[in-house]
Amino acid sequence: MGSSSIREHNILVEKVCQIYHKISNLETLKPSKNVDTLFSELVLTCIPPSSINILTLPQDIQEIRSKLIRLCGEAEGHLEAHFSTLLASFENPLHHLDVFPYYSNYLKLSRIEYDILYEHSSPQSWPPKRVAFVGSGPLPLTSIVLASYHLKDTTFHNYDIDPLANSMASCLVSPDSDLSQRMIFHTTDILNVKDELKEYDVIFLAALVGMDIDEKLKVVQHLAEYMNPGSTLMLRSAHGARAFIYPVVDPQDLQGFEVMQVFHPDDDVINSVVISRKAPMDSNIGHKHHHHQLGMESIIPLSCKYCEFQMFNNPLKMNMIEDLAIDE
After folding, report:
1. What's the rounded Cα separation, in Å, for the pair 316 and 143?
2. I want to staple 80 with a disulfide (CB 3.0 to 4.6 A). Which of 139, 254, 258, 276 is the partner?
3. What does each C-alpha distance from 87 to 81, 170, 250 come to in angstroms?
4. Could you tell me the strand order of the sheet in which 272-278 lies?
5. Which tens digits make up the pLDDT trace of 224-233?
């Protein structure tokens, strides 16, 4: 790594640490001018493409990063609750989703996830009939956008551990005659859900379910145990400096799943997308990709069809990292 890269990384880390100290001194993380300004500054600092490898940072910076991810998660929860309450004051809440400041990001991210899912699905399994979203929260925008625009005949089962989040979310969809029939809310810890997991064609795992990698992998291992072989797991991860905001999922950690693709946007969509398939019962779990030198920056192309972005209705500026040849 050149001296200019090291200098850039040091400047980035110093800036993130300064913002972290300001955020950690706030009395509350509920939406306010001060809170919004600091988190906007954090996002603007972390969004530009960076070659920084979070895993190589010293222990004290790793600890700050862990705390920062938790603070981001807490602030995001307050933000969603605030706007869910605001939306519920409208007669038709779903007609006013654009009052949420990051709604356009959800439109883009849902479109990316839909297209990736479509590319890696067989004609027999398309469209998915039943989808679960784990960690849906008080403002379940991914489920709403996918159900409204992309998967119009699919039933969405939304799981959240917080009963208040679920009651707020169901208030948003209950006035809508279509979505109120196709969006179901379950208040439970996903680790207590077992046989029902076999009923879903696709399971989405929200970025903030499992704030650190150990918590997240506990959930992933549970899904690996109970999901139907051949069903799809869609995860959200982070890449480069964006890993200061969201947890990173390393493809090597997805034991029991065949990782098909990792996609890193380079625009204002912060999350990376990881699509994987629950391996057949009798397969040698993980044999397909453990011989690759994988890191958090890899793409594992068990199927490499998703390379043509002309299919996008709203072309986004995106960055596909070069595919590895599957038959090296």
Report:
1. 21
2. 139
3. 10, 12, 36
4. 183-187, 155-160, 130-134, 202-205, 232-237, 272-278, 257-265, 318-319
5. 999 999 999 9
Max Cα-Cα span within the chain = 59
What's the confidence (pLDDT) of residue 281? 65
Q: How far apart are CA 191 and CA 112, in angstroms?
A: 28
Tokens of 204: 């989405």
Per-residue tokens: 249: 């999922």
Secondary structure, 3-state, 120-136: CCCHHHCCCCEEEEECC
* CA-wise closest residue to 220 among 189, 261, 249: 249
Overall residue count recorded for the chain in this entry: 328
CB atoms within 10 A of CB 259: 26
What pLDDT is recorded for position 88? 95
Each residue's pLDDT tens digit, 140-149: 999 999 999 9
Whole-angstrom Cα distance, residue 193 to residue 116?
A: 26
Bridge partners of 296, per DSSP, are none
**Full-model pTM:** 0.81
Residue with tokens 């356009």, as numbered in its chain: 104
Q: How sure is the predictor about 284, in pLDDT bands with cuts at 50, 70 and 90? A: very low
